[in-house]
Amino acid sequence: MNPTGPLSLSALGSFTIGGRRVQVDGQPTRVVAISRDLPEYLVDPNGTYRIEHAYVQYFLPAEQRRLPVVLVHGGGLTGSCWETTPDGRDGWLQHFLRDGRPVYVVDNVERGRAGWCPLPGMANEERPILRTEEEAWEIFRIGPPDGYAKLDPFAGCLFPVEHLSELSRQQVPRWTTTTSLSVVAIAALAAKVGPCVVIAHSQGGGIAAQAAAERSTDIAALVLLEPHGLPAQSDRLPTMPQLIVAGDFIDLSPPYQSLRRRWLEYLDAAADGGIIHEYFDLPAMGHPGNSHMIMMDSNSEGVASLVGEWIDEVAS
Amino acid sequence: MNPTGPLSLSALGSFTIGGRRVQVDGQPTRVVAISRDLPEYLVDPNGTYRIEHAYVQYFLPAEQRRLPVVLVHGGGLTGSCWETTPDGRDGWLQHFLRDGRPVYVVDNVERGRAGWCPLPGMANEERPILRTEEEAWEIFRIGPPDGYAKLDPFAGCLFPVEHLSELSRQQVPRWTTTTSLSVVAIAALAAKVGPCVVIAHSQGGGIAAQAAAERSTDIAALVLLEPHGLPAQSDRLPTMPQLIVAGDFIDLSPPYQSLRRRWLEYLDAAADGGIIHEYFDLPAMGHPGNSHMIMMDSNSEGVASLVGEWIDEVAS
Questions:
Q1: Is the predicted ipTM greater than 0.95, yes or no?
Q2: Domain residue spans in chain A?
Q3: CB 3.0–4.6 Å: which of A28, A186, A268, B263 could bond A211 by disulfide?
Q4: CA distance linking residue A82 with residue A91, whole number of Å
Q5: A18 to chain B: nearest residue by CA?
Q6: What class is the B9-26+28-314 domain?
């Protein structure tokens, strides 16, 4: 496999999935200037909207050799996180496509090309959050807080720090009120695409695991990169084979020490339920240096290969 | 050329372009619940942001036979408007890729994967507009206002009305305060990609023409699908060959009668300046039935071919 070689596709395109129709009445009109040719454009917000869907872009390899992969981004990001890495290398989208896997890249509800609903009373009413570069530096475990100003990361960190600003430009506003809508969208997507493998990052991991609990027959395997928001032990658990992938520097980050306890509890519950499960502690496996942005770190191709091998073992 | 045949790419990926760094200070922190595992997440909005960039996804054909094409969406839409049509056919993205043209699909500033800036005092402070399905029906010249309820379009209209809801799901919030930022982004993209051909729709047409006036050496030809916001006669005009494409039913729509006068005035000014120019009045050319959404109508492949032929005549 040549990670920069050509890509032969049978098709590429996009669709939306999920969501609902809403009808708005009784709102005032307003006049706006859209362009110099439309200086007094009357906007009437009353009428029909389609909201709360996800956007899905798909890439089908000319020679399909494996199950489709659905890529689910984390909080504050879109499907672009799986494309070109901040330092310009091919991402996991291209990697899994070269493996002969159809790839479905999601912009989940209220992110990216899925749009969001600015109408009063809807899930996007609250003011959204946009992550600062300083917060990304710290919460993505790139380096210590006082290392940001000089882009001085944790020793051995594989995130391409000189391209941190490109990661910042991939950040989009996010709401804290839309998780359950995102779960519905991923469940609907799995039902449409399945049988498939879902690979999900961070907040997307919790969303994917919750969706998988509803669609166990459509999702053949679940790969969770440092997830949060996993189903609790009292919830129904997804039953397909599951892999949690964890990077480095967790001992230096109290929030991730807490999340790691959750990952191990979750996998213990899977073991109790007789569910095939695996934990990739990357540093312990001889792959040190990963930040939270495992698909962007300089060893992203290598980790993708490890993940692909695990998938092929449990869901071929 | 087989419009559903395979696509051989040398590469695909994405990057961002333009924008700026801003620093925020003195804003209050707040605690939000991001997931059940992060129920008390402290959000500190103070710090560094990267805003006002565009997102660009690129598809490079294995065999490049022609100049690159940059596709610029209209108001309220994203780059997804050039992908799969609402009724599931390949769009102009795939068409021009099969022509052997590298294709760059833009999500301009504040749209789609480009994100937007929810911070006070920035270009997105005002409440955005989201288009209703009723307004799309009317302003995209699909049918008369009283035809919407029964999806009864203008006689002969080629928009796939039974899939109107898919067009609605492609709509995203848009601001009326970001046009000049979008012009800057397209100019920067042309400088990076050029020499290239820019194909732009509706509001994107005005943005592209304004950008082209600044980057006449990078843009070899300009294709404007029913544009608005074109440079005025007193402005500097772009000097490369230019094509305006107009659909049907304009005589039934007063706003488009006014826009058509602007298109013809603009082309007259181009003629006066010795600029190569063309006007495709599609019905007069024997291609009746186009709505404003020319790239989505059922003859979208045929119109794309006409546009491609014009490009090859003026910029090969």
A1: yes
A2: 9-314
A3: A186
A4: 5
A5: B169
A6: alpha beta
